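Because showing beats explaining, we think one record worth quoting, sequence and backbone structure tokens together, and here it is:
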Amino acid sequence: MITAVDTNVLLDVFGADPKFGEASAEAMRRCLGEGALLACEAVWAETATAFSNGDKFRRAMLDLAVAFEPISEEAAVKAAEAWRRYRLRGGRRSRIASDFLIGSHALSAADRLLTRDQGFYRQYFAGLKVMDPSA
């Protein structure tokens, strides 16, 4: 089973979030026990901002066994389609946000997405299995 990991879960773990840190860490351990963990470039970039340099970030991701998996052309186009539906429903973001790329990437490259933002992903990515560590 391949699990894509969202930024919020990684930041919970790396920041030892008092509310979600332990649940997110446990969910990641469970997912890793069932298969591979991966993250796309949007998650990679967002999470790297929490570190003082790239080497520390890369070592931390290696320690967690999270692999870098780039977004495919097909996933990028699906992200644009989801964003278009969002805008038609009254969404205010004027550009494709990382959440749309993350959701589309998870749908195309993984069996599920580990995130605390389950409502958004379920609304815009039908068929995406979402696992919420805080549930």
About this structure: The chain has seven helices and five strands.
